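Folding follows sequence. Below is one example:
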Amino acid sequence: MIATANAVFRPLLRLGLIPQIVIGIVAGVLLALFTPGIASNVALLGQLFIAALQAVAPILVFVLVAAAIAAHQTGQPTHIRSVLVLYVVGTLIAALIAVAASFALPTELTLDAGQVDGNPPSDILSVLRDLLLNAVANPVTALMDTNFIAILAWAIGLGLTLRQASDTTRQALSDLSAAITRIVTLVIRLAPLGIFGLVAGTLAEAGVQALLNYAQLLGVIVGCMLFVALVSNPLLVYLATRQNPYPLVFACLRGSAITAFFTRSSAANIPVNLELCRRLELDEDTYAISIPLGATINMCGAAITITVITLATTHTLGISVDFPTALLLCVVSALAACGVSGVAGGSLMLIPMAASLFGIPTEVAMQAVAIGFVISVVQDSTETALNSSTDVLFTAAACRARQNIAQE
């Protein structure tokens, strides 16, 4: 029996991770279409996969960042500044693209959706204050609550102080980092089964009927994200590296965006991104910091969501938006997107803050938030896929740009 099973599954196991994930997606779709009852039960596989990633991500980030900083040699470049510039510029461009698309394809909403729970921030200062407060949280609490702002702050502080420690101490920290990385690798190998469960469970529960009522809104959001992923981001990478960006773009989409789409969590996708950076042979001193940092502040997809739904609300209410105000909305959306991880409800809960620029009452804006939750099966998945894959893309671009300069 065991020999027969091995003979059947051995060709499948020899395939790469991405082909296995594609097979899992197709199997999940077929199962949800033909036997939705069974599909709901196998959703447990997806829940276990996400839980495993979320459980290992905080301690992985903490140990990896601390070990990378502790082992860093003075004078050795880390390219973090270049990565941060790409993060900020990419998010601003994404917001501008969302404004242009919203003006070209004005969308109306049916603002009679039910209210949603949550207290949205009143202004951008509230978002920034939450970020600062999160940064000084108790480290044990931060690990338990996956507060990556505090995890990063404590890891950086510990790494800087351990740079003066003995070689034995720093080697022990490096060995611990390697051990946790191996555990993460084992978890990632289970991605095909996890994504199979996620696809089957999501389609069985939500279906596609709920999305049809908001097809144009969803089309504008997803279209903007695809444009950013396939046009504006590659252009930024080309400007940074002076090389054809698309081999790197497609490598990041295959290696990061697929898993991020189905896990719908930038935090859960951190281990996947770190493994992808290792396969791309990037500088570990760079990606050990830039990937968890990007999962916190690089939110071009969130900027698109905030901008498009806010402008759709203004169009529905007949509010005229001039170019200077739209430009201000781009800046607010980009800044607010950086604080998504510190706000309950993610990017959708920041819509009322952006809507307040146009005098839209919170109770009306929260109806737009409710519509966002209806389409979140696709919107949030696409947003996370863009955010997460961009973290690796810009990290790789910064590393390769420095390599090109060194070779010259």
